[in-house]
Structures are given as structure tokens and as C-alpha cells.
Amino acid sequence: MSEKDMKAFMELRESMCRAPALGMPDCTKPFVLFCHERDACSLSVLTQVHGGANRLVAYFSASLDPVAAALSGCLRAVAAVGQSLTQCEGIVMGHPLTVMVPHSVEILLTRTKTQHMTNARLTKYETIILGSPNVSLNPATLLPIENAILYDAEEVEHDCLEVTDLCTKPRPDIKDTQLEENDYIIFVDG
Predict the structure, then answer these.
(1) Which residue, 78, 87, 80, is CA-closest to 106?
(2) 3 in a domain, yes or no?
(3) Which of 6-20, 28-42, 60-74, 139-153 is predicted with the least confidence, judged by mean pLDDT?
(4) Which residue among 49, 151, 176, 184 sits deepest, i.e. has the most Cβ atoms within 10 Å of its Cβ?
């Protein structure tokens, strides 16, 4: 270990000895889950308000399954929220939970008709996210900046329905009819 590494290790050790990195959950207070998806991984932090600030209760991270990882960005966020809620349900145990996510998850689940998500997968996410009576979603447009510690500013401001439509629909210049002024005869096998 170099001197720089040793110094960083000592600072980390001292900071961990000063105060607990994670607090014990208090079931009398509501929970807040900050959730995000990056590089096909679900990343989330479970917190509770304690002394006017969010106190960390748990960290969660997991890779999305291969099917969810192949979805477009906003739909991957829906999968990440579903996975994060499943991971934290043992700690939350049905107590009030607000999910902070930089995407319009509820709108994507209720208004999106895409061929990239099967009915079974859509029903699964609707059941986990919208079917839980203790879970409330904070829409991306209402996400307070001071609580947006996990998000980039440009990721917060976008229209999820428009982005999903652009990413999941075929290109408008591709046609299934013959070209009118074609100079070549091209054969495709299959």
C-alpha cells in the first residue's frame, strides 16, 4: 500500500468509527427510497427523515435480468424500481414508503403500450409498484432538487413517454413497400 492509500484507509476507518453509516429503521416514521438505474444495474438507497435530514437505512444494488437490461432507458428504470421495492420489502414491512425516481414510472406503467415488455412482465411491475397500498411514487417533475442526490440534472428533465416512443418504435424511414425509383435489384435471403 502506498502512503496515499494508507491515508485514505485511515480516514475511512476513522469516519466509520465516528457515527454509524447506517441507522436502524424506525417503523413509526415513513421510509423514502431513492432509486435509479445505471448500466443495467438497479441502484437504490432506503432512508428515513431523522433530525431534519435523510438518514441512511440500507443500500441496495443488483444487476437487472437480461430481458430488463435490454429495454430502453425509461423502461429499465421501471424494472429497477420493481427490483428495489422487492429488495427493501423485508425492512419496510408494509409501512409508508415514498419512491423517488427521475422517471414517470406510474405513467409508463399505465399509459405505455410497447411490444418490448410482455403482458406478464408489465403485470408483475404493476403489481409490485402500483398494487402496494403503502407505496407512493414521486413523479420526476416533482422531484425536489435537494433530494436528487443520485441523479444528473439532465436526466431529471425529460418526457418519459416521448423518449420511450422514440426508442421503441421502428424508424420512420423504413418502409415495407418497394422503392419507386430503384436502380438496383437486391435479393435478401430470409
Answers:
(1) 78
(2) no
(3) 139-153
(4) 151
Beta partners for residue 34, in sequence order: 45, 100
The count of domains in the chain is 1
pTM of the shown model? 0.72
CATH code, domain with 103: 3.10.20.370
Q: Does residue 189 lie within any of the structural domains?
A: no
> Does residue 147 carry a pLDDT above 50?
no
In a domain, 173, yes or no: no
Q: Kindly state the cell numbers that stand for 76.
A: 429499465
Report pLDDT digits (tens) over 5-54: 999 988 888 876 665 667 788 889 999 999 999 999 999 999 998 888 88
Determine the Cα angle at 150 with ends 144 and 151, to 5°: 70
* Residues ≥6 apart with Cβ < 8 Å to 41: 61, 62, 63, 64, 80
Contact criterion met (CB below 8 Å) for 97 and 29: no
- Mean pLDDT over each residue of the chain, to the nearest integer: 82
Phi/psi at 14 (nearest 5 deg)?
A: -65, -40
